[in-house]
Structure formats: structure tokens, C-alpha cells
Amino acid sequence: MNETRTIGEPLVIGSGVAIAYDGYVAVESADFVVRRGEKFVLIGPSGCGKTTLLKAIAGFLTPTDGSITLDGRAIGEPGPDRTVVFQDFDQLFPWRTVFDNVVYALGVAKRLRGAAARERANAMLRLVGIERAADKYPHQLSGGMKQRGAIARALALEPRILLMDEPFGALDAITRSQLQLDLNAIWRETGVTIVLVTHSIQEAVFLGHHVAVMSTTPARIVEIVDTSAADDMDSPEFTRLSHHLRSLLIAPDAEHRSLQAVVE
Amino acid sequence: MTVADAPAPAPARARIRDPWQRLPGPLRYALVLVVLLAVWQAYVSVSHVSQLLVGSPLDVAKQLGADVANGKIPAATLHTLETLLIGLAIGATIGFAFASLAVFSSVGRDLLAVLTAVLNPLPAIAILPLAIIWFGLSDRSIIFIVTLATIWPVAINTDTGFRTISATTQMVAKNLGLRGPRLVIDVLLPAAMPYILTGLKTAWAFGWRTVVAAELVFGVAGSQGGLGWYINTARYYLQTSQIFAGLVVISVLGIIVEGVFSVIEARTVVRWGMKR
Lengths: 264, 276
Fold this sequence. Notes:
The complex is a heterodimer. Chain A is an alpha/beta fold. Chain A has helices at residues 50-58, 98-110, 114-127, 143-156, 173-190, 201-207, 236-250; strands at 10-21, 24-35, 39-43, 65-70, 73-74, 82-85, 161-165, 193-198, 210-214, 219-226. In chain A, strands 5-4-1-2-10-9-3-8-7-6 form a 10-stranded mixed β-sheet, with helices on both faces. The longest helix of chain A has 18 residues, at 173-190. Chain B starts with 18 loop residues before the first helix and ends in a 9-residue tail after the last helix. Chain B is flat. Chain B has helices at residues 19-22, 25-47, 57-69, 72-104, 106-119, 128-135, 139-163, 167-175, 180-191, 193-221, 227-236, 240-267.
């Protein structure tokens, strides 16, 4: 499935990225390359700094050492060229309908208004499959639909890169599987570059072209695994890669052994 | 009899048996009010208490009708509301500005903390003598103290509202590139709306008490206008029923304003799922 789009040149390059805040080193050293059009997954145990790294790509945090570049330029302030989908269900503005959330974002971030904005908002809501809930307020939606709405808003802004921080982490297993499938479909449709944070091995192998495995804090990237050939969950390759990730996560090395590691 | 044998309760049985509870809410409240008024009327009729001390509900109603018809009550009400709304508008604007300043700068935050600590405990009516020295026996004095009465509830509640906005909402706003006044108006304000409405409600209550009290003082001092003045004039002529009429108007206005706030809440924070 993933091979229907070709993966291009490097888009985001992190080299020697270290991030510390509140006198605590969250990320010790991270080197990675995200290529244009790929789905890049950051996986690691809870609290390992993968969200921290994502926030640095988004511009919410500044690395204390090393650098992160987007198309060769250092990451600056947060902006709509790097839209973020959070885990939190309450990321759509509750005082706007789903449709108005997208239209408003287009007006602010893309200066797109009127019929053009409405048209684009409708197209995005169709893409994520919630066009029928367009006129609902977020609190009237299920968790899965809220996340779909957030993805629609994020994609409407045509970001260079879509950043997703455990977007399906708070969903029930069935909804989660459906959204994983749909995210793949959305990616095939748009070809958007995605960096996705998860602590689910299954999700990482299923969605990712590359999976960067992080150790416990202070985090390093232990290995970047090519998972682009494993989309069929029943294939031996899928199983092999899942086993490989599990072995990396549970004992990256003796020093970083942690009971927090999440095995799924 | 085993549990399995027990008949399932019919849905109809589950309904409230208390006949009083079955009546619609407004009817229940109206009945309570009618009973209270009847007791009041009975007391006045039976005890033959002096009309100089207590007016009967019927006398009060007659007085109310007469003074509404001759324009005294509408004029006094408009005067009071106008003074209050001007003071509230100025106070809420300043309070909102203080809260916005406190969000964007630490100096602003400390300024708000010190000002509220020092000025909030002061009953605004206590400033009236000072206001009279500054502005004389004019409505400007009353507007001034109403402003002082309303700044702090708005500032404190809005500030709390801003501070409790979720980290995710703030990050989404930043992600869209929102900043400055646009950030305040488009995101902070609606996100803090439940607190802002609470602040405005409290400000209204404080302002209402302050304006009526100030008008009473002004009535004593010989100045004219407003419901406080209307009540004080009635006292001067020993028109006890008229005093009661003034109190009824004040009470009814309070109920109406409460209703207005309920409508505003239903159309905003309740519709948005931010308040049940």
C-alpha cells in the first residue's frame, strides 16, 4: 500500500538534537532524517521524550544542542507549515462547529476566506469522513470523530509536515484500528509527510515507513528501522519487524532498561 | 420469592409519585409566591398593623401600578440602570484589560495581584465620600464607585479563566500563528467564557448593590434620580407602600437580569458544551 507513493529527498533533518527543560535532560542526542512524503514514526516507552522531540519539530521547544532543519532552514516559531494533531480530544475549539473550526483555521493561517475556504473545509471533512458531522459542535462528537476533525483542520492548512502526537492513544481498540486504516488512505490521497509519535509497536509497523526507536530518558534514538515493506499485519515480515522493535524497546541496553516500556 | 420471580417494575411506576413534584417548575414557584403573598396580606388585614409600618400586598400593588402609570418608576428604573450599565461597561473593560495584561506580562500579573489584594476587599460604597469630594453630588460619583465595584470581579475571574485554558488549546492557537489581540479575542476570550460570565454576573450583583446604596445616600443629600432615591423619597413622606413598591421593582429587575444571563449562557457556554 505504502509503495504507491515515492519517498523523496530529506525534508526534516535532526542532528545531535538535545533538549533539556526545567533542569532535566529529556532528549540526549537524536539524529534522524524524515524524507518528503514518508510516514516517520517515533516510538519509545512512556515519558521517553518522543513527544518532546515532536514539539521541537513543531517549534514549541528549542533544542539546547544540535539542530533541526526543515528544508535546510532551522525550525523557528510554531507555524501552520507544521500542523500538530494532539492526543487530547479537546483540540478543536469547542465554541465553533467542526466546519467552522476548519474554516476559521484557513482564514487565520492561509488567509483563505469565503467560498474558497468553505469549499476546502468541505473537501477536508469528506477526506477524513466526517462531512455529516460538519455542523456539530465538538462536544457532540465521539473521540474518534474529534480526532478526525483535528486531522481535517491540520491537513486543510497544507502543512509541509503533519505532526501527530499519539493521535489515537486515547481511542478504543476498534476505533483506533479504523483510524489507522483511514490515516493510510488519507496519506495515499494527499502524500503529506507525517511524523507520528506512538507507543504501540503494531501501530508503528503498520503506519510507518521508518520507525525511530527511542530509549528511556535521557533519550537517544537507538535505531531507525525500515518498516516500509510491512503493511500486511498477517505477513511474516510484519511479525519479524514487530519482534525486532520489541527487542529494541524492552532492552535497548542494560543501562536504559525500564519497566515503563510498553509492550503491546 | 427469588429475585428472578420478582416482576420487573413497570416504567410508569418509576415516575415520581409526589404530586407536587409532577407540577411544572414555574407553576410550583408561582404557587409558593401566591401563598407567601396571601400570608402577608392576611397578616396585614387581621393584625391591623399600622400602614405606616407595613404595606399590604394589595396596597403595594396599587402603588406599583400607579407609579408605573405616572412614569415615576420607569424613570427611576431607567436612571438606575443607565448609571449601572455605564459603570459596569467601564469597569468590565478595565477589568478585562487588566486580565489581558496579566496574561502577557509578569509585571501585569503582579500589578493585578497587588491591586486586587488592596482594593477588592473595599466595599465600593465606602469610596463614595471620596467620590463626592472629587466629582460632587453628580451621577459621575456613582458611576465612579460602580466602576470600582465591577473592575475586580471581572479582572479576577477573567484572569482565572485565562490561566485555566488547556495547554493543548494554547498550542493549537500558537500553531495557527495567532498572537496579540487576535489571540485574546478569538481564543482566550471564548475559552475563558464560563469564567468571564461568572465575573460579569458577580460584577452585576456588586454594581447593583452599590448603585442603589449610593442613590439612597444621594437621596438623603437632596440629589434626585434612581430607585434608591425613589425609596428614600417614599420614606421621607412615610409612604411605606411606596418603599415596598421600590423594593419589589429592584427584586424583579434582579430576576430579569438573572434570566438574561441564563439566556446568554444557553447560547454560548452551554451550547459549546463548556458548562452543563
